[in-house]
Amino acid sequence: MTKDPDRVPPEERTTDEHLTYDYSQPERASAERATAWPRRNSKGRITTFRHFLEVVAVLLVIGILAVGVIDLLSTWVGIGELGGTSGWLGGLMAFWLYVEEFRAWRGTRSRLLMALAGGVLSFGLGIVVTGLLSGLPSLISGAAGVAAAALVYAPTWFFGIRQLADREADQ
User: What is the pTM of this model?
Assistant: First the structure.
C-alpha cells in the first residue's frame, strides 16, 4: 500500500518525489541542514538533479585545476614532467560528494547495489575514455576519464537510488 505523498510529513518520506520545500521559514538547526546551494532535504540529500550536476561539475573543475597547479609547481621545482600527474586525482572531491550522498541514503537497502552498479559503469567508461586519449599527457587523459566517469555516475546514482527507494517504499 502506498502512502499519499502530499500527506506524509517530509521527515518520514523515503524519497524526494512530490516534495515541496518551504524555505521561507527559519530552518531548525537539528532537523534541517541550512544550505542555500545545493538544496538538501533534512536527511542531507541533494534535492534536484540540476543542483547535483552543478556541484559535480564545480568540484571536477576545481579538482582538475588544483591537480594542474600541483603538476605545474612540481615541474617547476624539477619533480617530474609537465602533464605527468594523473588527472584522475581531480575527481577526489566529486568522489567525496558521492560518498556523502551514499551516506545520506542510509536506511535504503538498495543503496550499496546502486553505488556498485553506477561505479562499475562509470569507472569502466572513464577507463575507456582515458585509453582512447592515451597519446596525450596523463593529466589530460586522466582528467577526461574522471570527468566522463563522474558525469555518468551522477544521473545513474541520482535517478537510480530514487527509483529503488520508491520500489522499497511500495513493498
Answer: 0.76
Q: For residue 3, is it left (φ>0), alpha (ψ between -120 and 50) or beta?
A: beta
- Residue 170, C-beta contacts closer than 8 angstroms, at least 6 positions apart: 2
End-to-end distance of the chain based on CA atoms, in angstroms? 7
Span 65-79, pLDDT tens digits: 999 999 999 999 988
Copy the grid coordinates of residue 98: 558521492
Residue 4 CB-half CA count within 13 A: 2
Beta bridge partners of 46: 40
Q: How many residues are given for the chain?
A: 171
Integer Cα distance of 117 and 122 in angstroms: 9
Look at 10-14, 18-22, 163-167 and tell me which has the smallest mean pLDDT: 18-22
Which pLDDT band, with edges at 50, 70 and 90, does 4 fall under? low
